[in-house]
Each structure stands twice: as structure tokens, then as C-alpha cells.
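Figure 2 data, in text form.
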Amino acid sequence: MGVLLTVSYDGTNYCGWQDQQNGRSVQEALSKVVYMAYGCDFTMLGSSRTDAGVHALGQRAHIISANPCRVPTHKLPLVLNNNLPDDIRILAATDVPDNFHPINAAKSKTYRYTICNSRYHNPITRNQSAHIRYPLDIAKMTAAIQHFIGQHDFASFCSTGSIVKSTIRTVYTLDIAKYCDMIEIIISGNGFLYNMVRIIAGTLVNVGLGRITPDDIPAIIVSCDRTRAGKTMPPQGLTLMEVDFG
């Protein structure tokens, strides 16, 4: 049997989830303590490859090893957390079949994008939010989100250079709310293209600033032209909230 971990982390000090040569990854830090628990080689596959500076409340990681873990599954979070850095925590661990695939089995993923909409960026939330100093019109942004919901070709919202078989994705829900100076955009879908959430957020910012109207969104989607959508918003505003396996 494999083990499925639910992982939460502050991505500020990491080059992303996946192991890379240009910096320390969340996967690298986690692998070191998992090896201590297993005492043997293993493979680890995350359900989402978050970028540098991106956070997670509900990342999933599947661990497979030829030998069983020396720690009972229900005690694994406590053991791993005692050895992990303070910005990574295991929230849960469950047994799953070895052939379980955390990417292919995912029915939906939910992300949150947070914007600090004030004259000055709040230093307390600077690593968990992007900053827009000019007032954003939430009513217009709310009117725009309906156009993203459903199945569309989201090529306009994919960073150039990304190689995928299809740019068609389905957005199940998209909501926006403002709490004092903080704006939260929460989006759920069957999958997301590279930087898709951050580009959608950037496009909604353009709506909020009055650069485009809510009714411009359908034409931007249909165009499949990356240059017509908004900029890619900074990574620190993005958090992987949940991966649902149905």
C-alpha cells in the first residue's frame, strides 16, 4: 500500500514544490524526513507542481516504497512534523493503493488568489498576497467572473512556452470577495494550465481597474491570444487550497 499525505506549506522560501537544481524545493525538504520514517528508498509524486513562492493548504503527495513505513500511517503526520521546518506541515496521512495516481485521480483542484488592495502593501500579508494600490471595482470584477465558468479553450490564459496536449479546461466555480483591504478570488476546476489562475486574476484586475469591461472577457477567451489577457500576477498571492478525488 502507498500513503497519501495532505501537505500545507508557506512557499516563500522555496523554489516550488518539485525538485529542481536551482534551489531548495518543498519536495526535497519533505523527502528528507520521509526517508527517516521509511529507512529505504521511495518515490513521491505531488498532485500539483506549485511554482516558487506559491503556497498550499491542501497539496497531496503519494509515497510508494517497496518496504512498509516503519511508522504507522495514523502517526506519520506527528513524526514527520516533528522533523520538518516550521513552514511545512503534514495535515493528514491515509493508505491508498500503490497504483493510485494523485494527478490522474484528481476530480477537481481549488486555488485562492489574494490581493491586498490598499495604498501600501500590508507587511504582515506581503508574502501571501499581491499588491494593487489603486481601487478595484469589485462589482465589475464579480460581473466578469461568470464568463470564465464552464468548459472553454483557455489558451489566452496560459503562459507562452507551455507544452500541453489540450488547452481546454473546465472551471466549475469562480467566486470573489473582499474583506477590508483584502480581495480573494477562489477558483475550482478539473485542471489548470501553467499560470492560468494567475493570468485570470490579472485579467480580473484589468476589469477592476476599468481597463477592460466584463463583456470583453468572452472575446478574450475565444481569441486564444495570450496578449489580450491580463498580466501574470505575482506568485505569492496564489494558494493551492484543495485537491478533490471525488
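Caption note: The mean pLDDT is 95.
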